[in-house]
Design goal:
Elements (H helix, E strand, L loop, with lengths): L2 H38 L4 E4 L11 H17 L4 E2 L2 H10 L10 H11 L3 E10 L2 E10 L5 E10 L2 H8 L19 E5 L2 E11 L2 E10 L6 E6 L8 E4 L5 E2 L6 E2 L3 E2 L5 E2 L3 E3 L4 E8 L10 E12 L7 E2 L1 E11 L1
Parallel strand pairs: 1-2, 1-3, 9-13
Antiparallel strand pairs: 3-4, 4-5, 6-7, 7-8, 8-16, 9-15, 9-17, 10-11, 10-17, 12-16, 14-18, 17-19
Helix pairs in contact: 1-2, 2-5
Amino acid sequence: MNPTRIITAVLCFTLASVQAQDMDKELSGVATKLATLIKDNGKKKVTVLDFTDLQGGGSELGRYIAEELTVNLVMVKTNFSVLDRANLKKILAEHKLTATGLINPENAKKLGQFAGVDAIILGTIVARRQKVSVTAKIITTDTAEIVGAAKAEFMSDESTQKLLLKSADAPKSDEPEQKDDKVIAAKTLGDLRVDVKSLVVAQRDFLLTLDLVNLNSKKSLWVALNADNAQNVRGGITDQDGRTFVTAWNEVSGLTVTAEQHGGFFHATEIPRTNTLPVTIRFFSRAGSAPTAGSCSAQLEFLTGYNFDGNFGPAKVNNFVAKVKAD
């Protein structure tokens, strides 16, 4: 093989790795700064909204950044709690509020009352040539006053640009959020329907977004992802090159991860009758491999049940397998 091509390939691989590490490191740093500011301002419960561009437009990158900050805040928090983003979306829909509308003091106050949060973290993304700048703000729900902020900048690569250009269908006004009907794969598991909304190559990981739908019109459905005793989720993503990408409990947003025990589960997430639960999962390679876009195979084990009293309920194991195209 031509030595020049070998050197070029190595340099490209190294650059992509540095860019991915740069982004993760910067977002981790932002979370640490925000956690200190939250503590200094005496806030006890916060939530993170999707980041937008300067015009309030949403993107998959904005959603990805919000998910990363949520996970990082949970990992570094000291004396405050973080509202799960899936619950936040449900609360916004129930009360006809939108993320962009929360800048309004009255709407921010409403969210504080409905969700019990006393601060909101939101921010903007600005693409500048080969770099992406991120600004995060902490806004109180009682006065909509900015009580803290943090900034970050990281290198942009092809996958980052794809996430930035891909719309997350974020609302740009105070109109109720409209449901995105785009589904790239679906499977019905009893009363649970799994709708795959997207599979995106995000830096060196896969980012999977799902809608879990309770088809039962009479009662709630309790759902969790099945895991081993170390809380590693059973299943994963296999890309078209045969590489396997896995996930763990702290890479799942919106859904409980637990291990099946004694024919049931001790932890689960409730989906009310005919309701939809949005879920986001990040998959990574233990070998450090980069994901390949194209046809992939997704496999997960869902635990489902109808009775969940006293923090335990009988559960059925449902195996979800689907072919999904990754962008």
